[in-house]
Structure formats: C-alpha cells, structure tokens
Amino acid sequence: MTYVVGLTGGIGSGKSTIAKLFAELGVPVIDADIVARQVVEKGSPLLQEIVAHFGTEMLLENGELNRAALREKVFNHETEKQWLNQLLHPAIRTEMLNQLAQQRAPYCIFMVPLLIENKLTALCQRVLVVDVSEQTQLTRASQRDNNQLALIKNIMQSQVSRSERLQHADDVINNDADLSESLPQLKQKVLDLHHHYLQLAEKFND
C-alpha cells in the first residue's frame, strides 16, 4: 500500500513549486486541482449542469469552462458556492480515491489546497504544510493571477487560518523567501523529506 503524504497550504503559498520538486525525484503527485479540471472537461455532464444552472457565460468560446467567471460568481454568493461544492466534491473525491488506489510507488504526494477544510487528512498518513505569511499570499496571488485583492482575501477567508493549518502539520516548509533566492534550500528540504518519507513508507508496509 502506498504511503500518502498530504501536501497543502493557502493560496499563493507555492504548493505547486514544492510538488514539482517531489515530482523531479520521481514521486507521483496527485493534484486535486487537476482532478477538479478533469471532472468538468469540455462536454462533460458536470459542465453541462454548471451551464444549465449559471448560464452560457460560464463557457469560453472553445466550449471549455470559464473558470474566472465561475470563481467570481461563487465566491461572492455563499448559496451558489454551496450548490457548486455539492455538485463537484463527490465526483472529485471519487476520482482522487481512484488515483490513490492505483499508486504503486513507496509513497505519493496528495496535493489538495483544501485538504484540512474538506477533511481529507483522513486519507493521508502524513501532512506537509507549505507555510507563508498572509502578506506573501496576497502579493503572490495578485501577481500570479492579476486578481482583485478583494477576491483573494475572500478566498483566504474561505480557507482555514494559518495557525489552524500548522496545527495539522507533521512537516512544514517555509516558503516566504523569493524563489530565485530560495530554490537551492527548498530543493535540499524536499530531498531531506523525500528520504524521510521513504523510510516511513518502508516501516508502514512492514
């Protein structure tokens, strides 16, 4: 059985950077964001339900989901957000469980932004948190997506607090520093954790 390391962090924390470093070491990464895109691919039944509920403005010209429009719609309307979550979460969870069950590596990284919020820590043997300050979150998220600050703050408020996230952590990577300066240290930290997780996985399967 594959040992599962849950990887999480708030918006703008740099989870994808850390996941990529694990992937470069040959570790399988199951990315909840990719799974979430797969279940609403062009022509999928779930995408058709979203369009029927919110209207055709939820589609791009090529027939794919307009994520920016959907995000703006639900983050400012709690009832719409709940409707969307009830539609998507069961399908996403089923697909993630399917991908976890197919793993044959000693351990895998299970990257979920809302790992704690959606109580998915129960699927993990260990939790790795990518930690940054709230100011870093705001700066990075606004630079990356050209998002409005109000929307980013809204997203941050929908996630657990930094302190609560850290309470769930078995391991923490601080990622406040600029990537151009910190990449060598991050690579070393990931390599150290990689060796640690391999040892834990071996004990887990004894």
Automatic annotation (TrEMBL):
It catalyses: 3'-dephospho-CoA + ATP = ADP + CoA + H(+). Keywords: ATP-binding, Coenzyme A biosynthesis, Cytoplasm, Kinase, Nucleotide-binding, Transferase. One of its GO terms (molecular function) is dephospho-CoA kinase activity. It is found in: Cytoplasm. InterPro entries: Depp_CoAkinase, P-loop_NTPase. ATP binds at residues 12-17. CDD domains: DPCK. It is an enzyme of class 2 (transferase). It holds the Pfam family CoaE. Its EC number is 2.7.1.24. Pathway: Cofactor biosynthesis; coenzyme A biosynthesis; CoA from (R)-pantothenate: step 5/5. Belongs to the CoaE family. Catalyzes the phosphorylation of the 3'-hydroxyl group of dephosphocoenzyme A to form coenzyme A. This is Dephospho-CoA kinase. It comes from Aggregatibacter aphrophilus (Haemophilus aphrophilus).
